[in-house]
């Protein structure tokens, strides 16, 4: 009786572990692919802001003393 029960339980556990492993692999791949997107969300506005600040500073410095 125990041998009959043990095989389906082991098969179910193996299947669940396999599904969990695949889900973990997909999560790692997707999250690592999204890292550059996340960096870009911060880097692009920062670069635009720094460029505009630099242009303002150049304009002010080229206008000379007031």
Give the total of beta strands.
Answer: 0
Helix content: over 70%
**CA-to-CA gap between the ends?**
97 Å
**H and E string:** H
Uncertain stretches: none
How does the helix and strand content classify structurally?
mainly alpha
- How much of the sequence lies in strands comes to under 5%
Mean pLDDT: 86
Transmembrane segments: 34-50
Keywords: Membrane, Transmembrane, Transmembrane helix
Secondary structure: elements and pairs:
Elements: H1 2-62
What can you tell me about this protein's structure?
The protein is mostly helical and 66 residues long. 92% of the residues lie in helices and 0% in strands. The protein is built from one helix and no strands. The protein has one helix spanning 2-62. The longest helix has 61 residues, at 2-62. It is rod-shaped. The termini are far apart.
Short précis:
Keywords: Membrane, Transmembrane, Transmembrane helix. The chain has 66 residues and is mainly alpha-helical.
